[in-house]
Amino acid sequence: MDDRMRMDDRKFGRNGPDRGSAYFPGSKPRANNAPQSLDHFKRGYKERKDMRDREEVFLLQHQQGPRGGGSGRHVKDWRRHEQLPDSMRKSDQPFILQGFNVTEWIERNANPHANVEAALGEAYQNYREAFQSGKAMTALIAAAARRRLIRLAQTCWRFMDKAGLEKNVFHYNAMISVTEKDKNLRAALDLLKEMDERGIEKNEITYSSAISACEKTGQWRVAIDLLDRMEREGSARSTIAYNAAISACEKGMVPTRACEVFQRMKRFGIEPSVVSYSALISAAEKG
């Protein structure tokens, strides 16, 4: 018997692991590409991030109206906008909007001692068109959310009221994303209530981000309630929102609820993703 085979026998026994017909002694085992434990959290985060990025890039390339878009067609068409510009793909590339360097401004004011409100006032005076269109504030809040600059995002939000800048669905989506990063579910729910009061229509990103905040805090009951609201209001249903709800049920250790959400997905004809199955399996393990 070959020395390598003897060594394998001593390590694993005669009935060692089945490595497949292509295995020969001394070769490296194949990489396991199956979803690993908790892998769906990372995958789910990437799904939501990609979705928000597509929305953000589309709206920044089209003129916004006061309620979130010049026309209903434009508000919906962002879902088909898959191509991200290099400035959004690479962190080392500055993102410049109508002459306003968003990346540079964020880096300059990320310091906790920076006078963010004064810096916003100066930028508003110098780049009035970018700010009055609503695009600059969307970009700033979204960039702050990505970098988890909670205080900076909150200051931007308050500045909009002081400057008389009207908020639309994209601003709220960006700010709800901030609350998700901050694990502040109460703030996310307050923003949803404010949208209702102002008559601002929600979309799937609104609900996906809010449900994700439930996932981060383990509030599965609230996640289910938001899913119910999304369905009642007729908002476009996305895999991401249901995945976040399944993950919230998993964190809450209620596998039966996770299975119910999964069945709802299939009932509405929504195609489950790898995240859906991975989260469901993890929920079953905990149950």
Automatic annotation (TrEMBL):
Stored Pfam families: PPR_2, PPR_3
Disordered as annotated region, ranges: 1-40
Start-end of each PPR repeat: 168-202, 203-237, 238-272
Keywords: Repeat
Signal peptide: none
NCBIfam families named in the record: PPR
Name of protein: Pentacotripeptide-repeat region of PRORP domain-containing protein
Organism name: Entomoneis paludosa
Lineage: Eukaryota, Sar, Stramenopiles, Ochrophyta, Bacillariophyta
